[in-house]
Amino acid sequence: MEILSHFRTIEELTKTLSREQGLLSEMFEKRKLMKFPQGLALELVGGNEARLRKLLDYGVLVETGNTVEIESDYLNFFEEVLNVNEEISVLSVQECINTLKEYIGYFLQETNTNRKAGYQDSVRQLLKKTGFRTLKNVVDLKRNMDNAYKQEPNYIIKKKKLQNLDEKSHSIRSMIRECEKLMDNEYAFFLMANDPHMAKTCSDVKHDFVEAYHALMEIDRQIIVYINQIEQQNQLYKKIRKLKYLQDQLLIKTDTNLVQVLDESNPLWMESRQYSKIRLSLEMLRENDQIVSILRRIAERNGLRKTARTEAEPLTDEDLQDHVQRLKGVDPAEVWNAFSASSYNLFDFILRYDYKTKRDIEDHAALFCQLVILHPEECRMTGKYATYQDIEYPIIYAK
Amino acid sequence: MRNNTQRIYERLSRGEFLSVDSTEASIRHLYEDIEENFDDYADFFKEIGLQLESGNGYFYFSRIGEGKQSIEQKLESFSKWLDYLDFLKTYNQSFTAGYQFRKSNLIEQISLDIELKEKAGHLYKKYGVGSYLEIVNKLLQEMQSMGFAECVSEQDETYKITSAFHYAEELVNMIQIANEDEIPE
What is the ipTM, given to two decimal places? Predict the structure, then answer.
């Protein structure tokens, strides 16, 4: 954008800036967050278009489409002055050193004492600036490095960033060396050493450099650690992919020492899950009702309802009472003993005997035959016959 | 015999790992106890045929003498984990101990990344696990049961990888590949 006018005095500049401080500070605070819409800017200058126009005309702000931003000269100025610039500019230090050399040249050649003193002041200021810039660069370097390592999600960019920071750290270091050499060897500094201001500045700057140097060493170490960690992860990643490739190609057994590695160790995690083979204590099962209810719950949860259902109901009181069922069976020996003690004939005796159950005539006949067969020797056959209902039977007594 | 023998045995005998950076205080407590009395514990477990192994921030068991598993079983276990590692490293190269991620992010990445999608599909193919949610759930469950991952927030399902994950990485590092340079990545 063409700059139509420019500030002619510091007064004009500072007054303008001071009048628009609301807008400028707002824009400066949001410089990283967003493009500043023109409408909002207009609001902040009190809706006065002429004021906004003036800033644009004087090149404090630039217009891009619908948004405005602070012109880079001013932005840099603010950042520098407020010490918030995060960029590491090795160049600015280099520039300082170059100018320093220039002024030293002028100083050495100047014959006019007044002007010579002027150059000496410039050299002092520049030296101070160099020291300050270097130190600031180192601090920024440290912050940038941490940010790059911790916040950059992309591995390749992360590595690249760290490598770039590593390079920067090297150039800062070489710059420090150059500046130190200048201070130690340059003839001009011997001449200037008489000036107490100059001497103090020199010692301050040297101190700054030492500090920066120490910090740089630490940063270097850290960067190496970070890069190595990334590299290690990268290597691992590549290796996993290679192994995966071999596995997919079914070459993993032949092309690697995997079998040997696995053969050497028996980690438990590779074993299939072991089920606990500890048996339940019978003693405990007998004595503890809780266990039974636990078992039943487990069985139900595992769908073993059947087993749970087939278990009989507990016995009722009725079940526990005596139930007597008499069988038809008679003990023939008992009947015989009773018979042999009696005077009845066998058939009559069988008819009269108290059997406790009801017996019919066929049962009597069967028992009659049974007893005769069991005790043939003890029977006294009379040879007489009698008839009972339709059965004819021999009359037999016990001997 | 020391106080925590039973608790340590119960965890490690399941093939689990104990990590120094576990979010569970009880596990950290066990870890510290082993660390302080390593020899005592190692001697004790040696009696029952188990070697207490220590690594970079983790402990685990291995069997002394003949293992119970055949070399084929070991190969199978390893190849399963190689698949997991391959999948997880494809998800994020910095997937290692200390890494934190949300389950939803992993699932989202799967549906965005065609390579990841293909790998995820292969993980549990033989079990017939279908949806990406199921796959991720199964994977996370397995990693949790090994002690490789822990759920740090139930609410947004954030998981953290414990230092036991170093074990898997170290195992990979132990393997040497013949003609490594000739193999495509």
Answer: 0.85
DSSP symbol at A275: P
pLDDT over 80 at A323, yes or no: no
Residues of A in contact with B175 (CB under 8 A): 239, 243, 256-258, 261
pTM of the model: 0.57
Mutation for testing the B interface, residue in A150, A159, A239 having most B CBs under 10 Å: A239
Give the model confidence (pLDDT) of A38-88 as tens digits.
888 888 888 788 888 888 888 888 887 788 888 878 877 877 777 666 666
Least CB–CB distance from B175: residue in A233, A257, A268: A257
Its CATH class, for the domain covering A10-82, is mainly alpha
Q: DSSP 3-state assignment of A50?
A: helix
Q: Which domain holds residue B169?
A: 71-174
- Are the Cβ atoms of A256 and B176 closer than 8 angstroms? yes
What are the pLDDT digits (tens) for A270-313? 877 666 677 778 888 788 888 878 888 888 888 776 554 556 77
- Own/partner long-range contacts of A125-130 (Cβ < 8 Å, ≥24 apart): A126/A96, A126/A99, A126/A100, A127/A100, A127/A183, A127/A201, A127/A202, A127/A205, A128/A201, A128/A204, A128/A205, A129/A96, A130/A93, A130/A96, A130/A97, A130/A100, A130/A179, A130/A205
B56 and B75 together in one domain: no
Q: What is the DSSP letter of B178?
A: T
Contacts of B82 in chain A (CB under 8 A): 240, 243-244, 247
Ramachandran class of B130: left when φ > 0, alpha when ψ lies in -120 to 50, beta otherwise: alpha
Number of domains into which chain B is organized: 2
Of the candidates A177, A109, A179, A171, which has an alpha carbon nearest to the alpha carbon of residue A138? A171
